[in-house]
Design goal:
The complex is a heterodimer. Chain A is an alpha+beta fold. Chain A is 47% helix and 13% strand. Chain A contains three helices and three strands; from the N terminus they run ααβββα. The N terminus of chain A is likely disordered. By secondary structure, chain B is α+β, with helices and mostly antiparallel strands. Chain B has ten helices and 22 strands. In chain B, strand 19 and strand 20 form a beta hairpin. In chain B, helix 1 runs parallel beside helix 10 and helix 3 crosses helix 10. Classes of the chains: A alpha+beta, B alpha+beta.
């Protein structure tokens, strides 16, 4: 119980959260109640799922 | 006029004695001179040669503060970049910090307008030029006109003045008061030319204005007394407390935004300005945020997100974001005296100034709110530079809050008229009286409050 609580606390630290989520894009909870869910790419851009797809398509386009 | 070299000033015959010739002291003296009052303006004028202190703790360590404590005619205006902006109404009554000044923006606006010409700005610089950029966010420009060097700008006026005498090369190193601590009775001075001390008696009818800077004012009010009694002016015990800076974060973020900020540029009479946006006041209140100004600079238009987000009729622009933000005033951040004395005999101060997690998180949250606002409205995207935000904070050289304004000795050093609580003839000018710091470079507010103080002193006769 105590360890679980500690783990939850540690997850609020950015670097722990960073290592836990392996994907290129990471979901982050909105800062505002009812705000949009955004993704943060490895450069730190706050993006939408559509952005991620559009950027991927653009990068792989011939 | 300037007293001749070697001529020691006496206090007799003056309505007001102003200690320090920076924007606060110089403005006070000039305004009182305009009102026909006789003023003695005392300036140490030894550059940075006899640094007032050498110790710093916290985020602004080492000799950081020395660079912003300039002992010369014109004071810190000699190092001013020219950036400034008035405080906002929310800065005077700050629900997030839980503090309100004993005055409101409405009380100060007339003095911003009167003070603007001292800074070679148009009076309308005091007006609210805010415009909505996207819902929840306003354009709030910074004035970045050429900086006024008070020493250069007003030397001629002072030389020709029959009302103002300037004593350069002299420092006030400590103060004496009557037994009731209701009136200053003596200024203990030091002559930097002959390296000798002398006294200047003060009559109850004479006003004394401490305008020695955010550090210097606290230093003066914290000078230990030989008899072990409370230093004169620190009866509240709060002199030196609530030290604030403006945390600066260069390249803290960037954004691609479907708004051309050039469209929001204020009228030409405003002078040169920098694009800046901030959350609407209602958002600040709702979210419990402190002041945070995002300064935006056009970048190249090659960013791939511009091409990704672009749609017919809506051009997108790439901006770099620098941040100037507010710091919560706390008693723990303070100026205090060391055991070391300078040649003049004045005890040297040290400073502890630590940015809290809240100060940093405030900026982080503000930037992420912008990111979410732009996503929600499909108006752009934001990238936050975590390293800059949490590892590269610096300051603006703005030393505020160390003789804060309030309602009584229980919460402050000076009252709404910048008078030290309990005294009839002792006043403080400068950013040391700020109760909260806002996000804006303080020169405009320093000058506005100095005009207001001068008018108050002139009114008392």
């Amino acid at each position: 119980m105590w360890l679980a609580g500690l783990g939850g606390g540690l997850l609020s630290l950015p670097f722990v959260w960073w290592f836990k989520v392996p994907a290129r894009s990471r979901n982050t909870a909105p800062s505002t109640a009812g705000g949009p869910a955004t993704y943060v790419d490895q450069d730190g851009w706050m993006l939408t799922p559509d952005d991620v797809a559009a950027l991927a398509a653009r990068r792989t386009a011939p | 006029m300037f007293l001749q070299a070697g001529q020691r000033p006496t206090s007799a015959g003056y309505d007001c004695i102003v200690i320090g010739s920076g924007p606060a002291g110089m403005t006070t003296a000039l305004r009182l001179g305009e009102a026909g009052r006789r003023v003695l303006l005392i300036e140490s004028d030894f550059g940075n040669g006899d640094l007032p202190f050498s110790v710093g703790y916290g985020h602004f360590a080492g000799t950081y503060w020395n660079a912003h404590s300039i002992r010369a005619l014109g004071g810190t205006s000699n190092a001013w970049t020219g950036w400034t902006s008035p405080l906002r109404d929310v800065d005077f009554d700050h629900p997030t910090i839980g503090v309100s000044w004993p005055i409101t923006l409405e009380d100060v606006v007339p003095f911003y307008r009167l003070g603007a010409p001292f800074l070679e700005r148009h009076p309308s610089t005091a007006d609210d030029h805010s415009q909505v950029v996207v819902p929840g966010w306003i354009y709030h420009p910074f004035s970045v006109h050429t900086p006024t060097r008070f020493g250069e700008k007003y030397r001629g006026v002072l030389t020709a003045s029959r009302q103002i005498d300037v004593a350069a090369g002299f420092s006030i190193v400590s103060l004496d008061a009557n037994a009731a601590r209701s009136s200053l009775t003596m200024l203990h001075a030091f002559d930097h030319t002959t390296h000798t001390s002398f006294d200047m008696p003060v009559a109850p009818s004479q006003a004394v204005v401490a305008a020695a800077g955010g550090m210097g004012n606290a230093q003066l009010l914290l000078q230990p007394r030989g008899d072990g009694a409370t230093p004169v002016g620190n009866e509240s015990g709060l002199a030196g407390r609530f030290l604030m800076e403006h945390p600066h974060f260069y390249r803290a973020a960037e954004c691609v935004m479907g708004s051309d900020l050039s469209r929001f540029t204020p009228p030409q009479r405003f002078g040169r300005s920098v694009h800046a946006i901030l959350p609407e006041t209602s958002v600040e209140r709702e979210r419990g945020l402190m002041g945070c100004s995002l300064n935006l600079y056009h970048q190249n238009q090659e960013h791939e997100l511009i091409r990704t987000l672009a749609r017919p009729g809506v051009p997108f622009f790439h901006y770099q974001i620098d941040v100037r933000s507010e710091m919560r005033p706390t008693e723990a951040n303070h100026v205090f005296m060391t055991a070391e004395r300078s040649r003049s005999g004045i005890y040297r101060p040290a400073a502890r100034c630590v940015l809290s997690a809240e100060d940093l998180d405030n900026v982080d949250t503000t930037l992420r709110l912008l990111g979410e606002s732009l996503v929600a409205q499909d108006r752009g995207r934001v990238r936050v530079n975590n390293n800059v935000l949490y590892r590269e904070a610096t300051g603006g050289g703005h030393i505020m809050g160390t003789t804060r304004m309030g309602r009584s000795r229980a919460d402050s050093v000076v009252d709404r008229d910048c008078r030290v609580h309990g005294y009839d003839n002792f006043f403080v000018a400068g950013s040391s009286v700020f109760t909260t710091g806002g996000f804006a470079n303080p020169t405009f507010t320093i000058v506005a409050l100095a005009v207001r103080l001068a008018d108050e002193i002139a009114r008392r006769g």
